[in-house]
Amino acid sequence: MSVTPTNILLIRLRLIGDVVFTTPLIGALKRTFPEAHLAYLVEREAAPIVAHNPHIDELIVVEKSRGWRRIREDTRLAMRLRRARFDLVMDLHGGPRSAWLTLATGSPCRIGYDIQGRRGFYTTMVHRPRGLHPRHSVQNQWDLLTAIPGWPDTTPDRARDAVFMAADADADARVARRLADAGVRNGDTLIVVHVSAGNPFRRWPEPAFVRLVASLAAQSEDRRLVLSSGPSDRAASARISAAARQELGTAASRVVECGELDLAELRAVLERSRLFVGGDTGPLHVAATTSTPVVGIYGPTLAERSAPWRDPRIPTASVHVEGLPCRPCDQRVCAPGDFRCLTILLPETVIEAAERLLARTAR
Fold it and tell me: How far is 143 from 126, CA to CA, in rounded Å?
């Protein structure tokens, strides 16, 4: 590509946190090529992250299908993408499906990572170091921008190029009603604790969450704790909530039920909150798109790779167990067998970090 691109496609199919990490690139591309048409291809589950992004001109949402259904749907999608005549396509995902769709566009400039088995799909490849290096995922994504011919020699700035998810006024109105119905008053200190994770390698034990929730709620009568979880962990969330309330006794009402939240509603709750506490999962990265202080609990992963990428003036704390030779890991097999990077992380350590951030932002 020797001319300024006018029709750009970004592909990042999933996951929630990984889609969040691509949002600094969206802003940078639109800032550099303001007249270009910018399209974004994503699977439905993560689409709310970019659904109302003001820099995206076209959102292409696909289903996460399998087997013959995927072959049929992707063939139709490939024909649609080829007809669009994109002059620049960036595969921010690097998986087999995204690589094939990148190739299928027929774009003269197709940029992706130098991954074995994918090299024939791109016209330009960017090296991605193997292993779990302490380098942020946003920086790894930014490397793809530098492969665009004529791209200015820039590095991502946490304040200017912060992760982004647009606020949704309708979701905020729904959340306001639900919080009021749950007894949350204007002026209450709202704290969100996310108690689940997509795999066992990132799950802090339930008793630790009970201790955390009960301790935070007990410190002030104006605090209200909202517990969030993924669909597969609703039962765990209910157990943690019930146990924390039992420990709180007469102050049990400080742990409130807000019901199941979609991503837009979760962001709306977080925007209204004074603190988020949770593991290295999608909700933490949604929280990073707000100005809410975050306490991140890191087990097998590194905060250097996935801590909130935003203005460093916003209070953030990353908590992990020091000195473990098995950390970080690829989250396929726990070498010691006891998930010690999380099971030996004391609730008191997380509580101290949470109280410290709450004190820094006290009104």
Answer: 7
